[in-house]
Write a structure and sequence with these properties.
The protein folds into 2 domains: 280 residues, Rossmann fold; 70 residues, no CATH class. The protein has 11 helices and 8 strands. Helix 6 crosses helix 7. It starts with a helix and ends in a 6-residue tail after the last helix. The chain binds S-adenosylmethionine. The site of S-adenosylmethionine has 20 residues, from helix 3 and helix 4.
Length: 376
């Protein structure tokens, strides 16, 4: 889906979110943005949510959305982010879903994204009554047909078959420790059993290292149990990103955050630039993997690194240059095959590190630049 569509859709949603937020906080009607004290209250809530969900993770597993101020902060700051993420991922599905069940919906960003992406029967399910009340208030404000259901993660799923079942930023909140991975996989299996043929289970998760790695572990279990992955990656083996504990994998989409989001991010002292998330789209049991296109396939794992090296580097001595994926693969094959070349490059790069890249070399260079004659 084009970025513009999301930006336009969010421009329509933001005044609705603010109107519902004012009613939720029992404030008089006001402008479609926040002023003075309102910004401060929401900014404080965002700081608490950000620390508790992404840093110390103390809120995870708790009923933080039952707190009126935190729910208000979630609505105005995290709702638009989840909405935009969900629109991006729903746009990748092989077919447009008609009926969608959104588990762990909170105030419904993923559910409304599904409605805006063309679904006509959407149910938002969560254990937080206040969050579901806000989802219904938003549905009334937007004149959208949203159903809501009480659901607790451990309990049975609301009955019925759906084209898509979504779980937005909830899987990582279910269970703790190693048992959590198989419990989460079991939940996804139950969800997949309630998805119609050709449909999907869609999981969105934060782009943090630990939550992303846990999602990859769940993904590996689901693949072992015979489920096909539709997105983001068609690799059929165990995920190689789990080999090194410091690695993980997340997606990034460009977007233009609504101005209120920028203002709230500033108020809370956070940066919200690119739209980052981890996600997984699974097919129901028994459906085949999509065959990748013929020919060699490459996955882009990083943007070009644009920086200036502090000292001279020579091609063939410090690095092997490449301009295309094929040249990169050839360069790696050369390194594997030519032990002398490898040793020579390692020795040259150690010299380079000692001269230009080691901490004392960096500090010396900074002092040199700072104390250069004529600088003060
Ligand atoms: C971070 S919010 C995500 C809300 C929304 N899906 C989104 O993507 O922005 C996590 C949601 O999961 C719900 N949740 C957490 N644990 C749950 C459980 N055991 N049963 C049902 N819902 C749960 C919370 O109430 C909350 O609404």
């Amino acid at each position: 889906m084009a970025t513009l569509d999301v930006d336009r859709a969010l421009a329509r949603w933001m005044p609705r979110l603010v109107a519902v937020w004012r009613r939720h906080r029992r404030l008089p009607e006001g402008p479609p943005t926040l002023v003075g004290r309102e910004l401060k209250e929401v900014g404080q809530g965002i700081r608490t949510l950000s620390a508790g969900l992404t840093r110390d993770r103390a809120l995870v597993g708790g009923r933080y959305l039952d707190d009126a101020k935190l729910l208000g902060a979630y609505l105005l700051f995290y709702w638009p982010v989840s909405y935009a993420q969900a629109r991006a991922v729903l746009g990748e599905l092989p077919r447009r879903p008609r009926s969608v069940l959104d588990l762990g919906s909170g105030p419904g960003p993923v559910a409304f994204a599904a409605l805006d992406a063309g679904a006509s029967e959407v149910t938002a399910a969560d254990r937080s009554t206040p969050a579901l009340t806000l989802a219904r208030a938003l549905a009334a404000e937007a004149e959208e047909p949203l159903a809501t259901r009480a659901w607790t993660g451990g309990g049975a799923l609301p009955e019925g078959q759906h084209d898509v079942i979504t779980l937005g930023h909830v899987l990582n909140e279910l269970g703790r420790g190693t048992a959590a991975i198989s419990e989460r996989a079991a939940l996804l299996e139950r969800a997949a059993a309630q998805v119609r043929p050709g449909g999907s289970v869609v999981v969105l998760e934060p782009a943090l290292r630990d939550t992303s790695r846990e999602l990859l572990q769940v993904r590996d279990l689901m693949v072992q149990r015979g489920f096909a992955v539709r997105a983001p990656c068609l690799w059929r083996g165990a995920c190689p990103a789990l080999v090194k504990p410091s690695d993980w994998c997340h997606a990034e989409r460009s977007w233009s955050p609504p101005p209120l989001l920028d203002a709230l991010a500033r108020e809370a002292g956070l940066h919200k630039e690119a739209l980052k998330m981890s996600y997984l789209v699974l097919a129901p049991r028994g459906e085949a993997w999509v065959d990748p296109p013929a020919g060699r396939l490459f996955r882009i794992v990083s943007e070009p690194l644009e920086f200036e090296a502090p000292g001279p580097m020579a091609p063939g001595e410090n690095y092997l240059p490449f301009a295309t994926p094929d040249e990169c693969v050839d360069a790696v094959a050369r390194l594997f095959a030519d032990r002398d070349l490898r040793s020579r490059m390692m020795a040259r790069n150690r010299e380079y590190y000692l001269e230009h890249g080691s901490p004392d070399a960096i500090v010396a260079r900074v002092l040199h630049a700072a104390l250069a004659p004529g600088r003060f």
